[in-house]
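Could you help me review a protein record that somebody else here produced? Do not assume that whoever made the record got everything right. The record follows directly below this note.
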Amino acid sequence: MCDFSIVVSGDLLRSIFERLPPSDLARSACVCRLWRDFASDREMKEKIFRSTWKVRRVLGEPSSSAFWRHPSLDRFAISHRLSRGDSVAGLALRYGVQVMDIKRLNNMMSEHGIYSRERLLIPINKLSLLIDSTCYIELDEHSKREVAVLYLEGGPDGKSTQTMNNTIYIKARRKILNSVKRSMQVDDGTAEYYLSTSDGDPRAAMLQLSEDLRWEQQNRPHLFR
């Protein structure tokens, strides 16, 4: 068998491996012992993972090296800390995802499961949300799976991480605003106003608008006397 340590230097081999997609890196580990050592290097796998998904930092250690090779966006999720008034339907609208996808990711049989939890994992359906983000590798107790979690307003301890996650939050906020604006058929200012009066809950914002329109219609004759 050819001695690859003679054919190519370690630095050059590392440089080549760093340009491989995760699936090809896994295959290269089967060629020889030297390639396996390089392909199994934790720093190497993380670097390729970050490059593939455009994330800036990965914190935490997965229980299996297969985590680094997972080819789908369902490896990632946004952590949403639950607060009073939250519902699965409302969160689906807020983040622009499907209700069933939230239930599936969080291993929920019904919406009643929301009341026994401190947070829900929200699926990520756009690669752009990952750009320049920090993700934390966690084993979620409810979903029973390892996920790379994004915290839009800070890290797991609630403290601010980096301004990069603020960019993700702004994008998500803009997405909510556009969704509410289309549903209400109003301008940005009106949508912003009703979102602010409803603590950012799109459903509550639309209900408030409906109530205001109903009141206006009922009282219009009196207003123009």
